[in-house]
Structure formats: C-alpha cells, structure tokens
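Minutes, methods subgroup
Present: GH (chair), OT, SY

1. OT presented the first of two proteins processed in the latest run. Sequence and structure tokens recorded below as shown on screen.
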Amino acid sequence: MKLKESTENYLENIFILSQKNSMVRSIDLARSMSFSKPSVSRAVHKLQDLDYLKVHKDGHLELTGKGLEKAKAIYERHLFLTQYFMSLGVDETTAVNDACRIEHGLSAQTFELMKKHISYCNGCKTAKENCSFDFSNMDIKKQDS
C-alpha cells in the first residue's frame, strides 16, 4: 500500500527522533516538524490504525516492526538522494530539500537501479575519480526491530 507523503514524513521523523532520544513523544514530533499538537495527534492515531506505531500509556511513541521497516526505507532514500545530489555538486541545503521532495515519489524500481548504478560507478576506476558518492553516510541500521 502506497502511503501519503505526509504519513511517510511522520514515520521518517519519528525514526530520526528515536535515533537521537531514548523516548519520543507527540510534542517532540510536533516541535521537530513545526506542526500543531492536534495535527500530530491525528497523524499518530492514523499511524496506530495502520499498525505502524504503538503509543504507550506514558505517551511514548514506538514504531512497530512494520513501521520501523517503512521508516528506515524512507530515511534510506532521503540519505541516498541527499548524498547523490551533493556528489553532483548541489549545495547541502538544496540537496536535502530536493531529496525530501523526491523521496516520496520515486518508484522502488528506479531507486534500486540508482543504487546499482552508483555501486557500479564507484567500482569503476575512471568513475571513482569523477564520482564522490560515499555510501558510508547511509548507515541507518542503528535501531533494530
């Protein structure tokens, strides 16, 4: 099932916050995304209904296995596209903004082929001289399900 861009943004932000903090609450999410508490509350309930998120009695938000898998995939796209654009010479701010806009609409097939192309590019001696792409910035496996 294809999720809406806003739903994917919530999952990605919960994941990022969970990497920085031991506990993520709705208020943390509202602050990080600059959204109102009611908007975040609606999104949190929707994520619960979709089985992407568990809300503990103390208000702590926890991605389910399904939610964590989806959030990691979204974040991987974001990191990949950001790094890819920067390797082309795009400044970091523009690269981050462009990656955020593109990550949600890119097909799985195109994304996988882009990754294969970059791996091939980095394996080629000539290409290495002209291609500064660095996969080491894409370590998103810090949190396991």
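2. SY then presented the second protein from the same run.
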Amino acid sequence: MSQPHDSGPVPRSSSEIPISRGVWLAALALAWLPGCREELGPETLPVASVRGQVTEGGKPVSRGWIEFYPVDGALGNLRSIRIGPDGRFAAHGVAVGRNLVRLVNMPVSSLAVRQILGAFHSPIRRNIPPGGNQAIQVDVIDEFMSYQRSLMPSTEAGAAGIRR
C-alpha cells in the first residue's frame, strides 16, 4: 500500500491572502480623514411649515387634500396634506419659494371648480418664505374667479388692438 504524498502547504486563494497590519491601518486612517463628503452627499433643500384653511365662499371645505408642488425654480418635494372637517390643514416640509397649490377630492358645488383647481396645472400659486409657520387662506371661489379673470382680454389690450 502506498503512502499519501505531502507536497507542502495547500495554496490559498487570492481572497485568503493575509493583509498586513500596515495596510489595514492606512485604510482606516483614510476612512477617517475629511474628504469630499459635503460635495458628494445629499443636499438639504430649504423647507417651511404651512398652515391654513380651505373655504368655498367663506364656508370650510370639509374634506379632500391640498398639495404643494414647487414651481418656477423652487426646489423640493411634493407635499400632500389632508384637509380637516373644518377646512384646516397643517403641512411640514413644504418647499421654500413658489408653489403650485392643487386641491384634490374636495366636495365643492361646481364640477368646473373641481376640475380646474384639482388639475396638475392648477392656477393657484403661493410663495412660501423660509422658516416660520406660514399661514395661507385658499377660497376656491375667489381662486376660480381670479382664474376666469386672467383668461379675459384686458380692455387696454383690446382697445390697442382696434386702433390703427
């Protein structure tokens, strides 16, 4: 019977090669050094708190959602907040700057009002200043009437168009 032949230690794979203590210390030191984290990390966007009330002709809108979309250069995320039974809402994390305000699933009397003010191109805009707790009032009738007036030609523009 033959004896097994021992040719020495079995070669290790590259993942099993021991790394010297000096290499570990250097890697640890590099991990602790300040680097470009500020330039590469997530950027915090300015936000504010907003509170207010949604009404229809002065009467509270009893349910639905109010949404804030940053527009016109404002940076941030969409914020969607439930409207309470008294028409009031409180939102945190609303983008600072110009926001489109959208009113969704509100029980108002006019289908046209619901369609215009609930659209992703709602005409309602509000400027949200930094810090503090901004209070805003949104009356759906006033907003709709303002939108309707914006569609009418100006009397000065009309008169200028007639002159020759």
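Chair's summary of item 2: The chain has a mean pLDDT of 81.
Next meeting: continue with the remaining queue.
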